[in-house]
Fold this protein.
Amino acid sequence: MKANAYAEGRAPAVPQANHLGTPAANKTKTPARKGSAGWLVPAGLILLVVIPLASGALRLIELAGGPKIMPANPPMTAMPLPVVVHIACASLFALLGAFQFAAGFRRRHRDWHRLAGRLVVACGLLVGLSGLWMTLFYTSAESTGDLLYDLRLLFGSAMVVAIALGFAAIRRGDVLGHRAWMTRAYAIGLGAGTQVLTGMAASLIVSHPTALSTGLAMGAGWMINLALAEWSIRKHPAHSARAASAVVSHSR
């Protein structure tokens, strides 16, 4: 049953008469700049991953036989399929996922949201699983210590679980649960972007990076993203509940 004004405990909007006694048209309360402000979050998310996406593109060019610009990585060269899957799916996951945070665009294009969402789920699972595979079976670099190894397994597994829980939630109509779990998964997936910043900060503190400092910097990137994700999830719970109810009612 579709939600209406009475269901929310409000009287329907009635046009007010002007000084001539003629009903005046209701004024829209959505200024043009509000729509543009809704794109700030997606734009910021895309900007965050520009460097990792560029690095991934260069690696793909190298694996395809192009010039060797990136640091040598013999395991990737010997077995390129997992890294190709990881980079390609991570790029789609980051870019398509960013548009899911444009609330106005998402509401106006529900079919696109559902179709893109399915692709985001598939790509996210492949990102997490390929990342776990590379962690387990590729030979670790000298800068990769036990801490970073364990963190990659932890957050890679957490990303896969979060996507699975998000998909299960939307299948049973739990929109709030779906948004929360997919937001957490996206935050983990965008860890590479934040890790560029935490890595730069660590290089200012530690002149000669160690396995410990590298692990801490990488872990900080994931934790910062997850902290921001939890803040976003809990920022407007009442508003999210009303929006979720509207989506479910609309789809029935």
Remarks:
- Residues 93 and 124 are 6 Å apart (CA to CA).
